[in-house]
Specification:
By secondary structure, the protein is of the alpha+beta class. The chain has helices at about 10, 15-40, 75-80; strands at about 45-50, 60-65, 65-70. The chain is built from 3 helices and 3 strands; from the N terminus they run ααβββα. The chain is elongated and about 70 Å long.
Length: about 90
């Protein structure tokens, strides 16, 4: 059974355009990786809290930067709940 992706030796038999495109794509990926290492994108801090609901249920309130979410059914249905007002 032959591998479906072309190997390095198979690239020699393809057109110069495809070889140029392959080289360009590899160069672009390498330059993007270097740029990400030099200027990493800061991620917002993530905070999670366990909150007791009106019954005995425990819900998870997650805060990512300025975004809040809750694991309660009210938030899952309406994207709004009383736990977000903490």
């Amino acid at each position: 059974m032959k591998n479906s992706s072309p190997g390095i030796s198979e690239l020699e038999s393809v057109s110069p355009y495809i070889k140029h495109l392959h080289d360009w794509a590899n160069q672009r990926v390498q330059s993007d990786l270097l740029a990400r290492r030099r200027n990493p994108i800061p991620l917002p801090p993530i905070k999670t809290y366990k909150i007791q609901g009106s019954g005995n249920n425990i819900y998870t309130l997650t805060i990512r930067g300025s975004q809040k979410s809750c694991s309660c059914p009210g938030y899952q249905f309406r994207r709004q709940c009383k736990h977000l007002n903490i």
